[in-house]
Design a protein that fits this description.
Blueprint: H1 13-31, H2 35-46, H3 50-53, H4 55-77, H5 80-98, H6 104-133, H7 138-167, H8 169-191, H9 228-231, H10 235-251, H11 257-263, H12 268-293, H13 297-316, H14 322-351, H15 356-384, H16 387-413
């Protein structure tokens, strides 16, 4: 392949980013960001408490945790194109099936299936593919991919509220399943590619030419960073695990913001609009955090945690004002954004790109475990106390996240956690 053939072309890494945006903006968004809209109508239809219905989300996180223990290895051995396309199709079929459920235990089974697909589509998709296809601008690309879920949330949360109000929750699940099957799965099958070397390219930014033609080989040993085995012996690894676990656990409070809004006497449409404000915060926060992290990871940790704390406090002390709740929801979206962007960039900053995929697959287990514990746990705690109480606990947890992230980065900067091999 000649340089003249590619220098005028857009690097294919940006097509990969577009595929990741589809997975995040539709598959992941419909599974997570819209889930809270369904809690009240579905639980009322099935005749079960909201907390009991919400356990299906915990099942989903547990199955993701279990699947992640092997998913990272599968991505190294098998085609990412095949794995992501297959899991997108399974997710779409599962959503269609949920439209016909009549018992809460059926949702628990569906949660298990969805969790398996999310191990690939959420936790490993864009972090792995962006790190394969990009040498520079990694933070902003991760932010853009993650932000797609926020854009999807702004689009689909109001749509979900309208469909549920006018046609019922079954039509909501069925419609979303068809969107996944018709709008995402075929695109992944056609456009997704595993690695730039398969197309005769280097990762974007690996050389000075716009096309990035792979006319030279880079030794794996020359890749900077910490090996997987060494990372497992470092204190920073376990502090990063704790950071990811707590960030994900706190982010699941998003599921209860719509219920908090309706509890204050507002309509389901207004609740769905508030959920859209969370997603607006997620969208802005993810892109901004990506930009910030390309310059200073500690600033990113501070931004995501402090905005989240401020947002939760605004929601708690809203005084019954919807505008204040929406403002707090937007700020909380920055904490939600930190789950994917900040966890990924903290891992890359501390451990480097050498064994990033294997290291981050372990960090992703902490993400899934945090969601598994918190998504159902918050609901049960809210049933026993109040939404204001669980939001207060969430603010405290975010404070601990700020300390954990800062401790990891400061220790790394002082050489306490660096690779000395």
């Amino acid at each position: 392949m000649k340089q003249s053939d590619t220098t005028s072309r857009l690097h294919y890494g940006f097509v990969i980013v577009a595929c990741c945006c589809l997975m995040m903006g539709i598959n992941v968004e419909l599974t997570f960001s819209c889930a809270g809209i369904y809690y009240q109508p579905v639980s009322a239809s099935l005749g079960v408490p909201v907390g009991e219905f919400g356990i299906y989300m915990s099942v989903m996180y547990v199955s993701s945790t279990l699947m992640l223990s092997v998913a990272g290895g599968m991505l190294e051995r098998w085609s990412a194109r095949l794995l992501f396309t297959l899991n997108s199709a399974i997710m779409g079929v599962t959503f269609v099936a949920m439209a016909f459920f009549n018992h809460v235990w059926e949702f628990y089974i569906a949660g298990g299936v969805l969790g398996v697909t999310l191990a690939f589509l959420l936790y490993l998709s864009f972090p792995t593919l962006v790190n394969r296809w990009f040498h520079s601008k990694v933070g902003i690309m991760i932010g853009i991919c993650s932000a797609a879920s926020g854009i999807g949330g702004m689009i689909f949360n109001p749509i979900a509220g309208w469909i549920i109000t006018n046609h019922g929750w079954r039509w909501g699940y069925g419609s979303f399943g068809l969107i996944i099957l018709l709008a995402v799965t075929p695109v992944l099958a056609l456009l997704l590619r595993d690695r730039p070397q398969q197309m005769g390219l280097l990762p974007y930014g690996a050389d000075s030419r716009a096309g990035g033609v792979a006319d030279s080989k880079v030794s794996p040993d020359a890749t900077p960073g910490v090996t997987y085995g060494k990372a497992l012996r470092m204190p920073a690894f376990y502090i990063t695990l704790l950071f990811a676990f707590m960030m994900m656990g706190t982010s699941t409070l998003n599921l209860f913001i719509p219920n908090y809004v309706t509890e204050h006497g507002f309509s389901l449409e207004q609740a769905s609009l508030t959920a859209a404000f969370v997603m607006a915060g997620v969208t802005v926060g993810k892109v901004a955090l990506g930009y910030i992290n390309d310059r200073n990871c500690l600033a990113g940790v501070s931004a995501t945690t402090l905005c989240g704390i401020g947002g939760l406090l605004a929601i708690i002390f809203c005084g019954g004002e919807l505008a204040v709740i929406m403002g707090g929801a937007f700020l909380f979206g920055w904490a939600y954004a930190g789950v994917t962007v900040q966890s990924a960039m903290l891992t890359r900053t501390v451990f480097g790109p050498k064994d990033y995929a294997r290291i981050y697959s372990n960090i992703s287990i902490a993400l899934a475990a945090g969601g598994a514990l918190a998504s159902g746990g918050w609901g049960l705690l809210a049933d026993a106390t109040s939404f204001s109480f669980i939001f207060s606990v969430g603010a405290v947890v975010l404070g601990v996240c700020a300390l954990a992230g800062a401790a990891t980065l400061m220790g790394n900067a002082k050489g306490l956690f660096k690779n000395k091999s």
